[in-house]
Amino acid sequence: MTGRRGGGYDVIVAGGGPAGAAAALALARAGRSVLLADPGGGPPPVGEALPAVARTLLRDLGAGHAVPGGGHLPCHTTLSAWGSPRLSAVDAIHDPHGHGWHLDRALFDHRLRRCAEAHGAETAPGDLVRPVRRHHDGTWTVALGGRSRRRTVRCRWLVDATGRRAALATAHGARRRTLDRLVALHLVLEGSAGPDTATLVESVPDGWWYTAPLPGARRLLVRYTDADLRGARADGPDAFRARLAGTRHTAARTAAHTFPAPAVPRRAPAHTTHLDTVHGDGWIAAGDAAAAFDPLSSQGILTALYTGMRAGEAVHAHLAGDPAAMTRYTSAVDAVRTAYLRNRHTFYRCEQRWADQPFWHRRHTGPTVLR
C-alpha cells in the first residue's frame, strides 16, 4: 500500500454495491489504502440477472475465482414477447461466455466486498459518508456514521457509488439529467414451479413486464411503466393482479407461485439518468451514481462493475500524477452511455403494436432531457 496520510486513506469509497466494491478492489490491487464505507439502509436489493460477459470483467478485477460462486441460479434462456404476441428465445448455448445468472444480490455484493477485503481494502459496514472540509493540500476530512457513533478520517479522494441519488456528486455541484419517467412495481413470489431458469419479458400497451426465478424457489415479478401513467403510483394488490391477468405469458409463468399477503408491489425508480459531469475536485462517480440505465438493457450490474473498475483505475492514475486520467474516465462513461441510448432506441422501436400509446410514443421519438 502507499500508506495512510495522517491516519487517513488514499481513497474513501461511499457505497458497498457492485460499483463501490469494484472501485475498492481496483484501488486495493493497485496498492492504494482504501476504505469501503457501506451505509446500507433502504430496501434490500432484489434479484437481478447478470449476463455471461461479466465473467470477463470479474476476471479483470481479480474476483473471477470467487464471484458469483454458488448460491445463484443459472440463466440459460431469455424469452420475449416483444413486437409480437409470440414468444421468441435466445439461448445461452450460443453465447461464447456461457450462461448468465439469476443472482442472490445480497450474496453477490457480499462476495465482491470480501474480495476487496482480501486485497487489502478496509470496510466499514453501516457508515454514512459526509465530506466535512476540503483542505489546502487537497485532502478531505470526512465524517463517518451518524451522531451516536460519528468519527472523522482524512482521505485524498472520494468515490461516489451511492446509487441513483449520487449523494456526494450532487452535493458538490454535479447535476442530474433525467431522460424518462420509468418506474418499477415489483413483488417477490414464493413457491417453486419446477426447474425454470428462463427470463421472460413481455410488452403491454402501457409498458412491459419482467419475471425471472430467484434462488430459494422464489420468483421476481416486475411491471414497468411511466410514473405519470395510470396505476403507476397506487397499484394496489387487486389492480396489480388484474393487470397481470391481462398478460398472455407472464401470468402463465407466475400461476404456480404464491403471492405475498397483501400483494402490494413496491415502487422503485427505473428511469434513465446520468450526471452532467462524472468527476470534480477530489471526487469521482461510478455505477448508478454516474449513469443509471433502463432495466431493459440488462446492463445495470455490468455497468456498475465496469465503471467502478475504471473509476478506481482513474483515481489511482490521477494520484500517481497522470493529468489525463479523469478525461479518459469521462470518455469511457460517455461511450457506454452513447451505446446504451442507441440500443435502447432500437429495442423500443421494435414494438410498434401500441405506437400511439403514451409509453411507446415517448420512446419512439427519442430521449429528451426532462430535468
UniProtKB/TrEMBL annotation:
It holds the Pfam family Trp_halogenase. Belongs to the flavin-dependent halogenase family. Bacterial tryptophan halogenase subfamily. PANTHER family: FAD-BINDING PROTEIN, SLR1998 PROTEIN. This is Tryptophan 7-halogenase.
